[in-house]
Design a protein that fits this description.
By secondary structure, this protein is α+β, with helices and mostly antiparallel strands. It is built from 13 helices and 6 strands. The protein folds into 4 domains: 7-84, no CATH class; 90-130; 148-185; 201-259, no CATH class.
Length: 260
């Protein structure tokens, strides 16, 4: 097929195998004011402007056949796959259930799945990673989960409110960086951190501190431990404990000011 390049006639220009029409008012027109004809036809069919990441594909492969029945909109990735490897069954890689059944239930490695689909094994591995399916090494069974409690989001969320990352790591026998990784994975934003100023072990015990706050004020707890009131307030804020004596303390201050 002979290719005509830059052949202009009455506001039309043929560049390669595609036709361009001069529409300077188009928001996605080139500097010379030209737009691809098949994009204009598809925009008229859809009733909107096409986004830059949307590609118009010719079904019969003829770039000059711009009838609406011959055009279809697809993503750039699907368009490249249709032109480079039209025989590959790419649709199966988009199905998470099919991949999970082939890889986990039937225990097929990525190389065997790729051979059935007619693609490379790297495309299968990328699809497994995209769907969150852990690949099984060839000839080896799936390794057991080493720290199953970290995979439990409810357990980790409850422990993160009353324990620091180091304490959870000591409880499970792992490092704190692994605990931090799973907290980010489960979107646990509220994490407990022991203030560095708290050196009294009683203030690190949430149950002990909560029982004292039900019957004692912050000043009484500080006098009992022999520390400052600010440390007691800091520990209560870290454990999200509200004192029953805060309102009464502020009322006494206001009464004293009125009397003076």
């Amino acid at each position: 097929m002979t290719v005509q390049r830059n052949k202009c006639r009455k506001g039309r220009m043929a560049v390669g195998v595609y036709e361009r029409i001069k529409t300077p008012d188009h928001p996605f027109a080139s500097k010379a004011g030209y737009v691809l004809e098949h994009r204009l036809v598809m925009e008229k069919k859809l009733g909107r402007y096409l986004r830059p990441n949307e590609i118009v594909h010719h079904i019969n492969g003829d770039g000059l056949d711009n009838h609406p029945e011959n055009l279809i909109v697809m993503s750039q990735r699907k368009h490249i796959r249709n032109h480079k490897t039209p025989t590959v069954k790419w649709g199966f890689l988009e199905s998470k259930q099919w991949l999970k059944k082939q890889h986990l239930d039937l225990n097929k490695p990525p190389t065997l799945i790729a051979k059935e689909l007619g693609c490379c094994h790297q495309a299968v591995r990328f699809a497994l990673d995209r769907h969150g399916i852990r690949p099984i090494p060839k000839g080896k069974p799936r390794p057991p989960i080493k720290y199953p409690k970290l995979h439990n989001s409810e357990w980790l969320k409850a422990k993160s409110k009353i324990m620091s990352q180091k304490e959870i790591a000591d409880l499970l026998g792992c490092n704190s960086a692994l605990v931090c990784t799973y907290q980010k994975k489960h979107n646990i934003k509220k994490r407990f951190k022991h203030p560095s100023k708290i050196i009294f072990p009683e203030l690190r015990d949430r149950e002990w501190l909560w029982k004292r706050t039900q019957t004692m004020s912050q000043n009484d707890i500080a006098h009992l431990l022999g520390c400052e009131r600010s440390l007691v307030s800091l520990a209560m804020r870290a454990f999200s404990i509200k004192s029953k004596f805060t309102n009464q303390h502020t009322k006494n201050k206001t009464v004293c000011k009125l009397l003076n």
